[in-house]
Amino acid sequence: xxxxxxxLEGVLVPEIWIxxxxxxxxxELKRTTRDEPDYDKLMRWRIGILKEHGxxxxxxxxxxxxxxxxxxxxxxxxxxxEETQVIIISDxxxxxxxxxxxxxxxxxxxCNTLEVAPDGEITGFxxxxxxxxxxxxxALQSIGxxxxxxxxxxxxxGMIQASKAGFLFRTTEQIKKDYPDLPAYxxxxxxxxGIESAL
Length: 199
Prior knowledge:
The protein is α/β, with parallel strands linked by helices. The protein is 44% helix and 21% strand.
């Protein structure tokens, strides 16, 4: 039995931190997992910047409420879910994901959680497991699923490479250059065809 594992940001919705960087006027927050492979280091750095500027969960959620899925993402997801099971595996957080899941028709998402003080300050974060995307794919495989995975960033490479088929989607030129063996697609039509051929 097949299950498709998709990244969220950069694949189905725009990058939350890039949108918040624009909304808050803090250019440093544009940095994502496309730039920094070490997610733990990236998040600690982000939390430090938020604290420095006195920003918290409320401000980020206000920005998220204005974000829409990428054009065609909802239709792509709907078509894919007609053919097979799909799970979104993201390093984002429950507190960020819910309004986006509503706009995508409530697909299943496995993500992490933020630690938030009563005043809304983000004080830390809890990952479900270490290397959560790769760990989730391996766990699915251990219970009889064959996985097909797609993502755009360094933190997606583990699940893509561990799956029976894996695809880069709207990734960077650097990642394409570093991983020339991985098919890289730019449109949902191409990605859908790639996944269908692997089912």
